[in-house]
Inverse folding.
């Protein structure tokens, strides 16, 4: 079975048409059984009513209504938790993603991938969204090693195992492929048809760029150092500490010669003392982070199993 998870917030005008388009894709029955899981992220318009109506006519439609607006990552997580398919699609509820691309996603997934992300090559969004997005994508690709042209695209498909292992919160929904890649899953992309928004309004503004940058730091830390925070914090801390100690030792030697006193206005004194203070803080912070990790880490966070072999039936003893 294929699940389609659709996070939506105030998209009432788009939903009926989206449902009709999804029906056209899955109605032909070439793809197999599907469930259409609409997750209403606390909409204040008539979105939920539209979903209720659709569910009356179509047994494939399922709905989840969150009590208030929790954000796209939360809506997606709610959908993932209840999705029953072996393959799970995510697509936006605003008609910007074209459901007709679903078969192509599946073909690409079958070429041995675990995640296929959409790439809105020709975008229909204002320039002040497109330009920062370019820079953002290049940075994410470089820093995480997960090379996608369009990390932000809401149109993606995952194998179920991926979602079992990758948890998201906050606004990390853009980084599921990155987190999956860090676990060793195979990630690919295809170009998709992107349509201009016809109804409703975009829920994200320019502020998303700043949040995206902060999230990039989080993701980089989560994927590289989350299991050994002291390695990164401690390395920088020890470096600064060493500089500080040598600087202060040198200043002490200088002070021994009465001709050099007082030394209070020497810049090196100030630098060394600062390095010593900041270095000490980073090391202790690293130890604290290490403590938090050791309490919260679960065995399954430390690896990801691709396949296993169990003794075959032939080896079982006859009763
Ligand atoms: N969305 C959501 N919860 C939110 C914000 C957005 O479920 O708090 C949904 C929204 O309804 C849409 C998708 O996430 O289906 C993408 O949002 P939007 O189209 O506003 O982003 P853009 O396409 O402008 O990047
Ligand atoms: Mg949109």
């Amino acid at each position: 079975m294929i699940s389609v998870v659709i996070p939506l917030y105030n998209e009432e005008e788009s939903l009926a048409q989206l449902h009709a388009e999804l029906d056209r894709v899955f109605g032909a029955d070439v793809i197999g059984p599907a469930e259409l899981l609409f997750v209403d992220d606390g909409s204040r318009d008539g979105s939920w009513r539209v979903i209720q109506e659709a569910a009356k006519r179509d047994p494939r439609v399922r709905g989840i209504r969150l009590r208030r607006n929790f954000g796209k990552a939360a809506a997606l997580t709610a959908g993932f938790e209840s999705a029953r398919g072996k393959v799970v699609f995510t697509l936006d509820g605003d008609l910007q993603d074209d459901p007709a691309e679903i078969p192509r996603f599946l073909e690409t997934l079958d070429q041995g991938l675990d995640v296929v992300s959409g790439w809105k090559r020709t975008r229909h969004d204002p320039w002040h969204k497109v330009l920062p997005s370019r820079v953002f994508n290049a940075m994410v690709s470089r820093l995480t090693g997960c090379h996608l042209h369009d990390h932000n695209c809401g149109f993606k498909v995952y194998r179920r195992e991926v979602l079992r292992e990758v948890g998201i919160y906050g606004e990390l929904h853009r980084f599921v492929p990155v987190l999956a890649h860090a676990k060793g899953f195979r990630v690919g992309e295809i170009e998709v048809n992107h349509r201009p928004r016809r109804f409703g309004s975009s829920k994200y503004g320019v502020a998303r760029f700043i949040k995206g940058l902060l999230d990039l730091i989080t993701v980089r830390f989560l994927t590289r150092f989350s299991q050994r925070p002291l390695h990164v914090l401690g390395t920088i801390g020890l470096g600064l500490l060493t500089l500080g100690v040598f600087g202060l030792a040198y200043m002490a030697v200088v002070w021994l010669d009465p001709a050099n006193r007082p030394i209070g206005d020497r810049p090196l004194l100030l630098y060394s003392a600062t390095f010593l203070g900041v270095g000490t803080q980073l090391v202790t912070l690293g130890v604290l982070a290490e403590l938090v990790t050791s309490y919260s880490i679960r065995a399954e966070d430390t690896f990801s199993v691709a396949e296993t072999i169990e003794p075959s039936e032939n080896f079982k003893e006859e009763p």
About this structure: The chain is about 50% helix and 10% strand.
